[in-house]
Amino acid sequence: METKVIEIGTQGISPIHRRIQENREERERLSREFGHELHEDLLTLNMGPQHPSTHGVLRIVLTLDGEIIVDAEPVVGYLHRGKEKMAESLRYFQYIPHTDRLDYLAPQINNVAFCRAVEKACGLEIPPRAQAIRVIVMEMMRIMSHLIYIGTTALDIGAASIFFHSFREREDLYDLADIITGQRMNNAFIRIGGVGNDISTETLKRVREFAAAFPGKVDEYEKLLTGNRIWWERNRDIGIIEAEEAIKFSLTGPNLRGSGVEHDLRRVDPYCGYENYDFEVPVGSVGDCFDRYLVRIEEMRQSARIILQAVDKLPPGEIYAEDRRFVLPPKEKAFTSMEELIHQFEVVAEMKVPRGEVYAAVEAAKGELGFYLVADDGPRPHRLHIRSPSFINLQALPKLSRGRYISDMVAIIGSLDFVMGECDR
Amino acid sequence: MELETIAERLGDAVLEIVTEGTKDPFLVVEASRIREVMALCRDDSSLAFDLLVSITGADYPPREVKKKAKKGEPAPESEVVPGRFELVYHLLSTKTGGRLVLKVRLPHEDAPSCDSISEVHPAAEWHEREAFDLLGIRFFGHPDLRRILCCEDWVGHPLRKDYVFPKEFHGISAE
Which of the residues B94, B150, B172 would you substitute to probe the A interface, choosing the one with the greatest number of A C-beta atoms within 10 Å? Predict the structure, then answer.
């Protein structure tokens, strides 16, 4: 069999490297930009797709002048599984577990985002109890995702101990997720029109205990990091992006708020009853890696606060919407009644979403996660587009890293907090 | 802000205001003027849609629309709706929190193209690369139009409705 060399991406030297070599003016322009004369021999360095700090399969083609980054070009797509294409051949209920595999560090936020798009298309009203349960699990997921950020980013920079502290709490959260949803990861707990299970009083007590103790744990992380001279030096004034630029690059989530823009969908465009909870939206001032760190630290405290309120005020009632055309019957009824079993079958196999085009977004742990759904009266979406925050936030990487040292790259990658499953879809 | 007010502000670039048959109302904008419209949406202080949320390409194959027959009359002939590729732009204002959906219907059925808006919103660069990669829509004035999610030697554009799945890839069977 004939073997063929597959040329993927930039081989040899990067385009900008070539431009600098061939074009005197380009070299002078960049020398002016960096404030010093570029050296004659630049280096193109390939970082990834297998690199511990990229948290997945991200490849970055670096053009280096000594230790200074002249340009960084992210190459994505190594984890592309065609999630949008798959949606076109799957029924709506079948697609929910696929959304788990986008941002697998906070799967249930993705579930909610997808279900909200379908619910909006169907015009479903979600009962308050289901909404409150959604809020509880979503905030748990947000904490989980931020714990990964803190643990791994600090680990990449060299502070190993914080990793164990943050993963201790993450383990507690996985245990709770296991009790509530029946799975530790990839829970697929949210249903169209409601949630999979009710939460028992016993579980609520455990969730409450966790949320009440958690701010103390955050103080512990802060003791290890915030005042830590090394952490401070590695993050302060590194990867700065100002508010105006951040908006230009369509950053959302903690990355945008780190630059001082107070924009949080939970506040601006509340969903799932977020308007009923009392919480603050932390913002940064400089827009460097340290600000983004502080924003996430404070967000964890606020998430714990929301969980406490949601647990205390959890309203009684149904966990499924009423419209039987789109909503599954309660599980225990499906097990005991023939009619309900037939109904369950019909909803799963035959549910048709009315024609229409819908965009629904939630404030995910990484930013605005939106699903754009084109429904055509059929049992499957005509087109489903996923607006994944990681994909868009990653675009700012060259902007953040130009002119910095190569060792700062790891801090910047960490502070942008993306996950490749969501980026590549 | 009311959609009509926005449409008025955008002037004659708006071809249509669609509020029926969709949950999110949107404006259909002339394809050749999208860059100008985007710049206006961002810079006009009464609009201030400064953040580009997403660009979605969608493929609508030409489809037959059957009309309902009236009582006692023979069924009227079905109508074929043309026009296949559409681009949907979602915008957000970080100042007011308002959202705006703009749509562009692209001419040229098999080789769709549109002006790039990466000059107005740098974040559009990857969105447009994605639309090029998955749907084969070309963007004029894009600084670096390459595939982004599929690998560079991939054949075809997977999100097109007439896409045929490859039987093999570099000698690896996919069946």
Answer: B94
CA distance to A404, B87, B106, B157, per residue, from B84 (Å): 45, 10, 7, 14
End-to-end CA distance of chain A: 33
The residue of B16, B24, B142 whose CB has the most chain A CBs within 10 angstroms, and thus the best one to mutate to test that interface, is B24
Residue A8 has pLDDT above 50, yes or no: no
If you average pLDDT over residues A76-88, what whole number do you get? 88
Q: Does A81 touch chain B (CB under 8 A)?
A: no
Distances (CA, A) of B155 to A9, B134, B138: 16, 10, 16
Q: Do B21 and A355 touch (CB under 8 A)?
A: yes
Residue B159 CB-half CA count within 13 A:
29
Please determine, for the modelled complex, whether the ipTM score is greater than 0.90: no
Quote the number of domains for chain B: 1
Residue recorded with tokens 């075809």: B156
Segment among A25-34, A299-308, A387-396 with least mean pLDDT: A25-34
* CATH code for the domain of B15: 3.30.460.80
Q: Which fold has domain A83-424?
A: Cytochrome-c3 Hydrogenase; chain B (1.10.645)
- Cis, bond preceding A49 (omega within 30 deg of 0): yes
B75 within a domain of the structure (yes/no): no
Distances (CA, A) of A239 to A399, A415, B26: 8, 9, 37
